[in-house]
């Protein structure tokens, strides 16, 4: 046994969170994304899981060997500690890891041995971040929260009456980032004042706060007319998707008067649009007017797109200020130079799964994206963590593993 | 003139970012959300705008008096500094504000007087966060980035072939949170090491990193089958929306075997589902099997929902572990007790707009949500900021205002 085997992979001391250690007891998207983001920023993140993995360890998509591509994506650069959560000795070890690290991030519910009060009684400067479904402790996930948040009723084609769920788990992603922000803010406060922090972060409140920040709740409470479906248009300004002669779709946005002027010039509709402004007594430099009269503008511009191939459209748009993008599938994106030539994406040889381009953080620090590191397998770092952080000997660790309290790294078959 | 008039509203010294000052030169969603979030965490955030406001100052939705509900929502708790961006003296004042604060967040492009190199030459520990559309400097917004990211091709009803844009600007929101996380991480690093940080954060890379983190790029590069539209189902597990006898829609998710068992018991389909498992030779405790056979399960469960009113369905679901939510419009959410009785929402008397419930941060710190503070009007704090931070006298400030270099607070008509 070599308990320090994985320390070679720990981030360098220049990373923003170098020296910060986090214990994560988590599953699914939000809390794991929080921990992974902290790991990317240089923290040592120890994901603690039941032996065999939490409920997300085999989540789709899977490889042919039943390994989760999903799990690997959200747990890059962490260490894995596996223990029997019902074993009191294992619970004590996990508590000690939390107390030693000083930071816990969890979305686990009903784990009394991780309760804030008991832990903070021992270590008052503890940072304890509890992610919940709802503030009242009841369960909720991205897809149910989204149903309550109002967006499915305004997403999708204009003539549709059914709700349309988003596929991107946007609330989970936002919740994970709010959780990471909470941790780093509390770490900074602790550095300045010495104080710990208890953070509670309900997924539902992430959604409702965002709905409020974007003005939807104020609009309703101030007696606004209510939002309707507007298809792929952009509320309050000009946006539309167009189809080319060869059947490719482009999203076009004209946010500023300059964008809009370029769009009328490109499509040869400047005279028609000027005549329309006079006839309607409006000024399309005002984005609200562009939005209100979008359907007639869509028709005017659509003819130009419908007569040209995607290649011609793309070349012509590139010479203008118009905001534009060709719709792509995930498969097309995966082979796009903006992925394959992007320094944010780094070739990762992910054990058990294979080699692919995995993303670092979207932000670079002093021109550098943090190095991408693979996700561990369940229990890969149990022995190293017990040795490094709790000072256990090899014999003690072997005894814990033999008793089933913890699971250590699986040996390769000889 | 009372240059300290607004300091009463500054956050208390126990807030995580107390003592941190940020200059924000921004517009639209991502960068303003970053600054607002930092303000909620206790930083003093000075939003610097052109006189009359940036391109987002009149963005929809508007009140009858043409005030932007949208702008108020994303700029709560900031101070407003207004100046003529083409005036070299004003540029110098803004640069000095940045150098004095030590932190700049901006999504402005082409403002050479805000370039990192020149500012860092004077203040090497500067934290400079540049939000971009794309990494190459070309323009992109949430709606165009989304088209490239792949989600519109898999969002919406199963039988649809057109792309469906999201309405929630999920990439902007995530970008704003990544930006805030970058700032706080860099502030912490500066506290520990003394070093400044240059952060570059392209909106497009936020989307592409998220697509990668969620496994879509790896799946494609590993030769996976590609994703198709699955309507309101949840990929890889069981989720479906059902309609009640009175026409109300519910989103149902059965993520765990327990959720699923409760769902079959509630709907009286346990025998039928067991028979189905035997006939298909599958085990629905495996979430992948629930997903693969979702259509027949949808039909079995749907009958139960279709025979009951929403009130009965809601009551019955509440007694189970099943994850569920009634679809709501924004207007319904705005009057829901989970908003009106939620301590995260605080009554805000927003000058120029009116009184409504505005959200604080979704996370509470030691049981408390930060106090919600109103958004300023353009130039409200110009004089106070010049006095407090640059030490200008009242006469000097009046001269700058008279020359049109800055705009100070608009006096109420006498």
Describe the structure.
- The structure is a homodimer of 414-residue chains.
- Helices cover 39% and strands 16% of the residues of chain A.
- Chain A is of the alpha/beta class and 414 residues long.
- In chain A, helix 4 (116-122) links the parallel strand 4 and strand 5.
- In chain A, helix 1 (30-40) crosses helix 6, helix 5 packs parallel to helix 7 (203-213) and helix 6 (170-193) crosses helix 7.
- Residues 1-11 of chain A have low confidence and may be disordered.
- Chains A and B meet through helix 1, helix 2, helix 5, helix 6 and strand 6 of A and helix 1, helix 2, helix 5, helix 6 and strand 6 of B.
- Chains A, B: Pfam families: CoA_transf_3.
- Chains A, B: This is Formyl-coenzyme A transferase.
- Chains A, B: Its EC number is 2.8.3.16.
- Averaging pLDDT over every residue of chain A, what do you get? 95
CATH class call of the largest domain in chain A: Alpha Beta
Shape of chain A: elongated
- Runs of chain A in which pLDDT lies below 50 for 5 or more consecutive residues are 1-11
Widest sheet: strand ordering of chain A: 6-5-4-1-2-3-13
- Provide the CATH topology of the largest domain in chain A: Rossmann fold
Please report the distance between the alpha carbons of the first and last residues of chain A. Answer: 15 Å
Q: Largest chain interface and its two residue counts?
A: A-B, 150 and 150 residues
Can you count the helices of chain A? 17
- Overall structural class of chain A, as computed from helix and strand content, comes to alpha/beta
Note the run of SSEs of chain A as H and E.
Answer: EHEHEHEHEHHEHHEEHHHHHEHHEEEHHE
Proportion of helical residues of chain A: 25-40%
Q: Can you say what the CATH homologous superfamily of the largest domain in chain A is?
A: Crotonobetainyl-coa:carnitine coa-transferase, domain 1
- Give the CATH architecture of the largest domain in chain A: 3-Layer(aba) Sandwich
Strand content of chain A: 15-25%
Largest sheet of chain A: 7 strands, mixed
Oligomer: homodimer
